């Protein structure tokens, strides 16, 4: 397995990428683009993303990790990013990898990365697969939870009255707001608020994996209902649960070997089929 670091030219600067190439003697299985989650969740998840990318490459997949606009080592600041610029980045990464790889093409998202992956799949208009790790179903709900981090900070300072209304008013007036050390632009907030996990009809396969702190955990009711709706619409969608920590939000960097193994099994099943 070879690892290559490089920058892709983009509309606003350049995007940092890591490409995990399979060993030359390993049969090629396909290509995967990883779409990272939002803000601090991205940093907490780097270890798990790296472990999964290496495992996929060892099994014959070319894996491209991209830092979206204003994130990681890519150009710009977080406060300059918009939902549209992130969608452009994911589509650019997908197109770049598709032109250089064969076999099944996957968009692998974590948390809000699942929203970006599913919307990109709809824009691409060609058969692809989704690997969804603990997907966020509603961008509107996620944004509300993110803004509450500001409310929690104000409460500690004893001045929480009207915080949520003030943040909403600032965004509506075209002003950016600071939340948990991140400057959130109206363009990013508005796009996230409109985002819903609605996969395109041309998707070949959807693999949905959730984590549970319980060894015998089950899919959340919302996940079960959404998957049932998709299957009724003719989509090939499967869900499963693995036991492990919510590594994207733990205080210390955490690993979940069961999630890595479940992802490999899910994708191998598609390749075999």
What are the defining features of this structure?
10 strands, 2 domains, Rossmann fold, 8 helices, 273 residues, alpha/beta
Write the layout of secondary structure elements.
Elements (H helix, E strand, L loop, with lengths): L1 E9 L2 E9 L8 E6 L4 H19 L2 E6 L16 H16 L5 E7 L1 H13 L4 E5 L5 H18 L6 H10 L4 E3 L2 E3 L1 H9 L10 E8 L8 H12 L4 E7 L13 H16 L1
Helix pairs in contact: 2-3, 4-6
What can you see in these coordinates?
- This protein is α/β, with parallel strands linked by helices.
- The chain has 2 domains: 2-138 and 196-272, Alpha/Beta hydrolase fold, catalytic domain (Rossmann fold, 3-Layer(aba) Sandwich); 140-194, no CATH class.
- Helix content is 41%, strand content 23%.
- The protein has helices spanning 40-58, 83-98, 112-124, 139-156, 163-172, 186-194, 221-232, 257-272; strands at residues 2-10, 13-21, 30-35, 61-66, 104-110, 129-133, 177-179, 182-184, 205-212, 237-243.
- Helix 1 links the parallel strand 3 (30-35) and strand 4 (61-66).
- Helix 2 (83-98) crosses helix 3 (112-124) and helix 4 (139-156) crosses helix 6.
- The model has no long low-confidence stretch (mean pLDDT 92).
Specify Rg, calculated over alpha carbons.
19 Å
Shape: globular
Low-confidence stretches: none
Q: Strand order, main sheet: write it out.
A: 1-2-4-3-5-6-9-10
- Number of H- or I-type helical stretches: 8
Q: Number of DSSP strands? A: 10
Text of the CATH class of the largest domain: Alpha Beta
What is the average of the pLDDT values? 92
The sequence of SSEs as H and E is: EEEHEHEHEHHEEHEHEH
CATH superfamily of the largest domain: Alpha/Beta hydrolase fold, catalytic domain
């Amino acid at each position: 397995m070879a690892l290559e670091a490089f920058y892709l030219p983009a509309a606003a600067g350049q995007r940092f990428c890591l490409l995990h190439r399979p060993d030359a003697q390993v049969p090629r299985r396909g290509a995967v683009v990883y779409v990272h989650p939002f803000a601090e969740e991205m940093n907490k998840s780097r270890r798990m993303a790296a472990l999964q990318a290496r495992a996929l490459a060892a099994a014959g997949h070319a894996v491209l990790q991209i830092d979206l606009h204003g994130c990681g080592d890519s150009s710009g600041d977080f406060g300059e990013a918009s939902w549209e610029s992130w969608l452009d980045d994911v589509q650019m990464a997908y197109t770049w990898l598709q032109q250089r790889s064969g076999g099944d093409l996957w968009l692998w998202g974590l948390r809000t990365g699942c929203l970006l992956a599913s919307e990109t799949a709809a824009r691409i208009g060609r058969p692809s697969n989704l690997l969804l790790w603990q997907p966020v179903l509603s961008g509107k709900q996620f944004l509300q939870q993110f803004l509450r981090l500001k409310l929690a900070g104000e409460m500690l300072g004893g001045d929480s009255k009207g915080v949520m209304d003030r943040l909403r008013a600032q965004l509506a007036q075209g002003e950016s707001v600071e939340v948990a050390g991140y400057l959130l632009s109206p363009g990013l907030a508005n796009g996230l608020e409109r985002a819903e996990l609605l996969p395109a009809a041309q998707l070949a396969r959807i693999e949905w994996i959730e984590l549970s702190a319980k060894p015998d955990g089950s899919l959340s009711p919302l996940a079960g209902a959404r998957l049932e709706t998709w299957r009724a619409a003719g989509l090939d969608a499967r869900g499963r649960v693995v036991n492990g920590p919510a590594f994207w939000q733990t205080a210390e960097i955490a690993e979940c070997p069961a999630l890595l193994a479940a992802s490999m099994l899910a994708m191998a099943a598609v390749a075999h089929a």
